[in-house]
């Protein structure tokens, strides 16, 4: 179980399982993965402008407007005046949005512990270094395809 193809198959299985976990959370909350990702960014960054959200999410400002509109309608975020820029608004999580972020954070911590908690610190460092190498190889391969 060590050929490149076998390792790829196991990696694809892992991504499928992680995707299924994310799909289950999406179903429980009734939020799309894009809206969940936006809330995750807000949880990490705090209130930010839509322009900053677009940059963090790697999408256009128009896409962020749609996401924020939906989250505002569902009661997960509000738009508040920016304290330093009259033209800008800050997207701010509501109590409901903060609750989703707290659930996401706890789930993230629990999943990380389930996957890697039994590994020694040295094994985690080695695994992290291998993941960095694999990601760098994938980025390079994708760039070469362009």
Which descriptors would you attach to this protein?
Arc Repressor Mutant, subunit A, 6 helices, mainly alpha, 3 strands
Q: In CATH terms, what is the architecture?
A: Orthogonal Bundle
Shape: globular
Q: Give the biggest sheet.
A: 3 strands, antiparallel
The number of helical segments is 6
Major sheet strand order: 1-3-2
C-alpha end-to-end distance:
31 Å
Give an account of the 3D structure:
The protein is mainly alpha-helical. The chain has a single domain, classed as Arc Repressor Mutant, subunit A, CATH 1.10.10.10. 73% of the residues lie in helices and 8% in strands. It is built from 6 helices and 3 strands; from the N terminus they run H-H-E-H-H-E-E-H-H. It has a 3-stranded antiparallel β-sheet. It starts with a helix and ends with a helix.
Question: Secondary-structure map with pairings?
Answer:
Layout: H1 4-29, H2 33-45, E1 48-49, H3 50-57, H4 61-73, E2 77-81, E3 89-93, H5 95-116, H6 121-145
Antiparallel strand pairs: 1-3, 2-3
